[in-house]
Design a protein that fits this description.
- Helices cover about 35% and strands about 20% of the residues.
- It is an alpha/beta fold.
- Strands 1, 2, 3, 4, 5, 6 and 7 form a seven-stranded mixed β-sheet that branches.
- The two termini are about 30 Å apart.
């Protein structure tokens, strides 16, 4: 069990799953930079988090619900939780809002975040949740996510590793990859350093005193 002052945000698990260094820069070194994707995402969540208690199709819809888990050492806010008016109570649905479009590519970082919210709610209300939903704002569509044993284990592992990073303050070194292209922290992270042997070589390339290494192939990434 973690004491209250050692709880970490649920969103840290999503960031860690996407890129451990990005998670370290944000939550250990307290660095941040916005780009168009992060600003749009923040606006989507601000709208979703506006506290409200409404009803839809015989279900009670709660927005901006605070969550926590002493076992995993997590806290956060669920965008939407839908409760049935009648039993079974296990028909509760957590919905996490995302700014982008629904794509065929699985985004494990989103699923880890959603499942972590479910584990917090299970612990608080003694529930057994089988699945939740991701809502993609640009597509106006939901996709169901099953809380499999493998996904639950991924949450447990990410929580343990993130707590260890917070305890040791050991931020992973930069490593250039496809995800770097769209990352809002690229100028703070300096992943290009990982292409050369050391920071001095990178600085020489910046001043045109050293030939640049072959360009690295990229695919569009998400921040």
């Amino acid at each position: 069990m973690y004491p209250e002052d050692e709880l970490i945000p649920i969103s840290a698990l999503s960031q860690y799953t996407y890129c451990p260094r990005r998670a370290g820069l944000i939550f250990v070194e307290r660095q941040w930079a916005d780009n168009v994707f992060t600003v749009q995402g923040r606006h989507v969540h601000e709208r979703a988090h506006r506290p409200a208690d409404t009803r839809s199709d015989g279900r009670r819809v709660v927005r901006g619900l605070y969550l926590s888990s002493a076992r995993l050492g997590l806290f956060g806010i669920a965008d939407v939780v839908e409760f049935p008016d009648q039993d079974p109570i296990t028909d509760v649905t957590i919905v996490e809002y995302k700014r982008g479009k629904l794509t065929p590519r699985r985004k494990l970082e989103y699923e880890v975040q959603l499942c972590a919210q479910a584990l917090c709610l299970e612990e608080t209300l003694n529930l057994d949740l089988r699945r939740g939903c991701l809502f993609f704002a640009l597509s106006h569509r939901r996709v169901e996510v099953e809380f499999t044993p493998e996904l639950r284990q991924a949450v447990e592992s990410a929580a343990q590793r993130m707590h260890e990073m917070m305890r040791t303050a050991a931020v992973p070194p930069p490593q250039l990859g496809p995800k770097c292209r769209g990352c809002s922290l690229r100028d703070l992270c300096l992943p290009e350093i990982s292409v050369g042997r050391n920071a001095a070589a990178y600085l020489r390339r910046l001043t045109n005193d050293d030939p640049a290494p072959p360009s690295q192939p990229h695919r569009n990434g998400d921040s």
